[in-house]
């Protein structure tokens, strides 16, 4: 009996030692570009209080660049990660340039400040769903957005877009009088900026039969072009049975798997 009690105490102690405590700091301003930025450009940081040099996920919400709000995905909590959830200015009140610039400013803020929250500036992963995936790709591939803030986009550990638009975003095409099914590739398309020396890219799509406007085929072409220009670390996943809206939950497991893979290879 005494031996059993001792073993139980040791087991509880081991679980307690392995437990981690997390804290969230809300509504940290990261841009003062204009009155709307002062209202909208805020981020939340969720971080472990008893770990150091943790991998970081900068998370951009979806909403078609016209809606949505920041949140910490439940599936990324209690995972030894620092999560930075970002609000950015929205169309049509703001321009698409403002949306992308905010994404860059938030990532630059993360590089400059994440050490205060036990994160590693050498392990910053940028991810987002739908419009958030579009912003992820734009700032990671078109280097001028982050260069404005003195950050080399290639410092990003990996880009992980979930169902991200890679042609010119439909919200901008709509403002130009175009239909969602009418494609355009210009400087506002991640596809326009593909390059072999970009950070690792993990592309995640919903089921091709349930995606939005052929998004799987769009991102599959993106993957193929990156391979053809010589990118050395680009992968694509298709989540069978999931649609555009519900694919983010299973996609988080892919993100965490690839964070582990990339961090272990450094």
Explain this structure.
- The chain is α/β, with parallel strands linked by helices and 266 residues long.
- The chain has one domain (25-264): 3-Layer(aba) Sandwich (Rossmann fold).
- It has helices at residues 2-18, 35-40, 96-113, 131-141, 144-147, 170-175, 215-228, 248-264; strands at residues 22-29, 42-48, 54-60, 82-86, 119-129, 158-162, 201-206, 234-239.
- It has an eight-stranded mixed β-sheet with strand order 1-2-4-3-5-6-7-8, with helices on both faces.
- Strand 7 (201-206), helix 7 (215-228) and strand 8 (234-239) form a beta-alpha-beta unit.
- The longest helix is centred in the middle third of the chain and has 18 residues, at 96-113.
- Residues 1-18 have low confidence and may be disordered.
Topology of helices and strands:
Blueprint: H1 2-18, E1 22-29, H2 35-40, E2 42-48, E3 54-60, E4 82-86, H3 96-113, E5 119-129, H4 131-141, H5 144-147, E6 158-162, H6 170-175, E7 201-206, H7 215-228, E8 234-239, H8 248-264
Parallel strand pairs: 3-4, 3-5, 5-6, 6-7, 7-8
Antiparallel strand pairs: 1-2, 2-4
């Amino acid at each position: 009996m005494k031996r059993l009690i001792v073993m139980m105490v040791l087991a509880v102690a081991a679980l307690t030692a392995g437990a981690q405590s997390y804290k969230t700091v809300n509504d940290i301003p990261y841009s003062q570009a204009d009155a709307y930025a002062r209202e909208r450009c805020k981020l939340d940081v969720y971080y472990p209080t008893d770990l150091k040099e943790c991998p970081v996920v900068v998370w951009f919400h979806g909403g078609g660049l016209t809606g949505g709000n920041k949140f910490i995905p439940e599936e990324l909590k209690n995972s030894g990660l620092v999560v930075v959830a970002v609000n950015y200015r929205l169309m049509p009140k703001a321009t698409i340039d403002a949306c992308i610039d905010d994404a860059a400013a938030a990532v630059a803020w993360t590089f400059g400040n994440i050490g205060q929250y036990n994160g590693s500036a050498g392990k910053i992963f940028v991810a987002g769903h739908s419009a958030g995936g579009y912003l992820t790709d734009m700032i990671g591939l078109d280097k001028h957005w982050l260069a404005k803030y003195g950050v080399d986009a290639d410092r990003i550990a990996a880009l992980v877009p979930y169902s991200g638009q890679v042609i010119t975003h439909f919200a901008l095409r709509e403002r130009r009088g175009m239909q969602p099914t009418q494609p355009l590739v210009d400087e506002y398309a991640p596809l326009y900026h593909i390059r072999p020396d970009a950070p690792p890219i993990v592309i995640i799509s919903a089921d091709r039969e349930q995606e939005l406007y052929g998004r799987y085929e769009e991102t599959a072409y993106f993957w193929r072009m990156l391979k053809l220009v010589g990118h050395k670390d680009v992968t694509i996943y298709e989540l069978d049975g999931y649609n555009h809206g519900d694919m983010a939950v299973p996609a988080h497991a892919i993100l965490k798997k690839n964070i582990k893979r990339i961090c272990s290879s450094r």
